[in-house]
Amino acid sequence: MKFSKVVSCGLVVLLLALSCAGHAARLKDMVDIEGVRENPLTGFGMVVGLNGTGDSSAAFTAQSLTMMLERMGISTPQGVKVKNIASVMVTASLPPFARQGGKLDVTLSSLGDAKSLQGGTLILTPLKGADGKIYAVAQGPVSIGGFAAEGAAQSVQKNHPTVARIAGGATIEKEVNFELNQEFQLQLSLRNPDFTTVTRVVKSINGLFGEPLASARDSGTIQLTVPPAYQGKVVDFVSRLENLQVDPDQVAQVIINERTGTIVMGENVRVSTVALAHGGLSIKITESPQVSQPNAKSGGATVVTPKTDIAVKEQEGKVLEMGAGVTLGELVRGLNSIGVTPRDLIAILQSIKASGALQAELEVM
Hints:
With 365 residues, this protein is an alpha+beta fold. It contains five helices and 26 strands.
């Protein structure tokens, strides 16, 4: 019997992000308005009605159960253990301009050693914000979108049974006070701060309304004055701003994920004059055990002699010269012409950066 192992460069996926020059984006996809954001909510709750898959040894679950029953006027013995209950952390996000009586989706994550939250029901749980105030309450049957089952020698699981979700499971009880229509000044924050982009945004806004309403405070912040015609109607003002088309700029950057072999390069990547040499190496190892079997009545022992054959094949290297100011497309075409795989391209880009010829930021994940 022969055992073969081939050591060579594997085929990986190369992702090239080629942005079109001058491609405009909507302002609503580039900036956030100060004060218009989500607020995280958290709370400690209990899921009841589990089929023996709840917490078995979590002391805080038994303590929480005892306290809950005492508030209902029911006395319980110390050290009570009920496997039909699980302690969970309940999280939700309060969207901007949410009003009292609205519904929120909540996520439940097990805190103890529960095996599954399947079939359980979350009992009334207050959800608090960062200021410690209650903004919503959650309750209802949970959904895990999967299952978990086990026997004496085997188990099966689909998805993650200790994390569940309740669609519309929380009711908003308190609102975050923010009256957008009463504002006279707005502050816009660029999601990707850049001096060139922020300058283009300011010019586009001032050009749209024909007056100097916007000014840049730094590379990521724009101070905006609400014009008199839109005071008290800031929603209409923001609506016009959101659909404004602006050409965003970006830093020349190369992102490399060595674990997956993924490479993402921006359109502004440039390479100075450099010469590249590339050659592929393939090693093939074949093991063929030689078995010596003695005669039946000779009294000898079976002898196994290992035999290993190693074959090394190296492709002929090619040298490619890249001129100064080479663009991304030219770089990729040149590397493809010498048969470079994405895995090899990672090593080549790192070497070019080390030589100082790569005019871009190189980030390795």
